[in-house]
Amino acid sequence: EALQELLYAEHKHKILIVLQAMDTGGKDGVIKHVFDGVNPQGVRVASFKVPTSIEIDHDYLWRIHQQTPGKGEIVIFNRSHYEDVLVVRVHNLAPIEVWSKRFDQINAFERTLAEEGTTILKFFLNISKDEQRKRLQERRDDSTKQWKFNPGDLKERELWGQYMEAYEEVLSRTSTDWAPWFIIPANHKWYRNLVIGRVLVTTLQSLNMKYPRPIEDFSQIQIT
Ligand code: ATP
Known about the structure:
Helices cover 44% and strands 14% of the residues. The mean pLDDT is 94. Helix 2 packs across helix 11 (189-206). The protein has helices at residues 2-10, 27-34, 53-56, 62-65, 87-90, 96-99, 102-115, 129-141, 152-158, 160-173, 189-206; strands at 14-21, 43-47, 74-78, 118-126, 181-185. The protein has a five-stranded parallel sheet, with helices on both faces. The longest helix has 18 residues, at 189-206. The protein is of the alpha/beta class. Adenosine-5'-triphosphate binds next to helix 2 and helix 5. Residues 23, 27-28, 48-51, 78-79, 83-84, 87-88, 93 line the site of adenosine-5'-triphosphate (ATP).
């Protein structure tokens, strides 16, 4: 929390956190638990759903770029441009000639952001297929979780193998020095949160942030 306050005060660095996972993988849990206690003024969550008709009329990075962090800001992407090489690939929403070019395009895009001062951290929350079954069952049965249960998720579950193939290519082709992927074992929620928390703290510490110096000498000012 102190580090985030410093980030906000220094107004220099931009932090982009990308969260990707299979359904029930725990994106919401990470947002809730890892970022509890940070000042909402400096943190924003951007969720990317099925593109709207305006979004679909543009290139796939158009809506993404609009949500990238400004100075002093942390932005968490709940899903991201990676959907455009995941769900789009698995469901044939674009032909292979189109989506297969996107790995290089994404690397170039992220490189631009990084060179312009954005620190990018990408987390893949890795749950097993069996753990997903347990979590879906819990959603179906627990009245406090039923609101999250979407029968459509069962259809996606049948495509598990194809999603894993798509994720493998994402992780191997888009983990770069300027925007690394962290593959987080996510079957255990406490462990998942701990690992992500540590990566974040280490990254923020390495930025060597300092509180801004006053523009004038305040020591002579009397506060009566
Ligand atoms: P989440 O699981 O992220 O909390 P949700 O399942 O509650 O979200 P939905 O309204 O289902 O919310 O929105 C997410 C859906 O949008 C996912 O099924 C995802 O595959 C889809 N989606 C996201 N980006 C794209 C895209 N670029 N093209 C097609 N579908 C997309």
